[in-house]
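Per reviewer request, we include the raw input and output of the structure prediction for the construct analysed in the revised manuscript.
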Amino acid sequence: MLRRWCVYLLMFSSLAAWAGAKSNPVQPGQKSASTKLPITTSSAQARISFEKSMRDFEEYRVPETLQDLRAATKADPNFAQAFILLSRMSPDPAEQAATRTRAKQLAPKVSPSEQLLIRWLAGAQENNYVPAISAMNDLLAKYPQDQRLAYLAGDWLMQQQRYEQAVTVLERALTLYPDYAAALNDVAYGYADTGNFEKAFAAMDRYVALEPDQPNPHDSYGEILRMAGKLDAALEQYRMSIRIDPNFGSEVGVADTLALMGKEREAREEYDRAIVFAPSNADKVQRELQSAVTWIREDNRKQAERALSDVARHAHGVGQARLEAEAHRILGMYEPDPKAALKHLQAAQDVLREEHEISASDRDEERARILRVRATRLAGAQDMESASATVNQLETMAGTSRSQVIQLCYHGAAGAVLVAQGKFTDAIPHLEEGVSDPESMRLLWRAYSSTSAASEAQAIALKLSALNLPTVEQALVVPQFRVSLVSRAEQP
């Protein structure tokens, strides 16, 4: 069985060594070539814009971050580090590709450490994860006192769903700089994503105390409260963020929370407001997609199909191929008829085969998600031959890519097909890999229940029923699962 071994060994050994290293704290404002990642630029103005962009990034002001990085590259067209960070943060696939290419062209002209940064961030976008993660580890080992580098690494690991590794990196930064607000923000998410809400709330309390007049601490606190099921308290935090800065974008958090509360009409009204002020085409399409899911929560099939089809067309028109494919994939997940569902999934795959500007990692990871849904739908229709062939495709992808998304898609699909075949014992190890994915959790509960693993089944049922994520996967699985638990409890 294919497991997450190679990357994990690489990461754990390097991160453990980095986290255990002894060094004397240096104040965040202190500059030292030996303790901080160098910044190679010939322009004083570019350096000023770059430093402002990093402060904006730490406060999660994404539009301002992008604006300042673009200003830095305009002031110095040879500013490799600004180009690679712009590629990392931009939601525009064309800008990602252009700035990544430019950074790689400039790499021979900058310091060896900046070359490592480029190898890490460009490699991740190009689905070359082993050399990318190796470069990241080398940077962390070389600059154990660079709190901003640690934050960049922790934030990237969070986005890769590698929460435990992210916490390791961020805790190390906080050991050196206990009041580093940006690291407190991300480590709180890491704690929440691993189920430790007590530590998450403690970190958020410190974060809010450090920056009480900034919107992001309240926005983040709202999201973590929502994850913990404290929905009314989450709304209070989101609305406080809006009062502090109406342009920050916390309307999306309000909308997501209302959707989870079953207030779908109100949620759509909030999404509409958020869409108007979205800072980019990608943000607009993403918010439209979230709004479309409210119709799924209402089980209004006609409106859901119309809204998702509109999202796909809009995404196509503004060059957001991954989101276009995602809209078709969601239609394939929601469609009750297996044959019609497979047509939607084929449309999603066709989008990814077209000539679009999209990174290799985004293309491959979305393809893996589509194949996972395809395998699950085929297994549900008892077409085990085709389902197994699809799992084999995913296994091949997982064998050549160390993307966490691809690994989890393979295990989720393999587990789903094995459950459909009644092979519950064989399914369990696969499904245990995806213990934060609603569908894998539901199937794992079924597998535990069918193998007399009562305590394990109860534990996963409690976790799944408490899952409060504003995603289509949660919408399709969790509300129905909660109802089924109540029904089972009421049975004599």
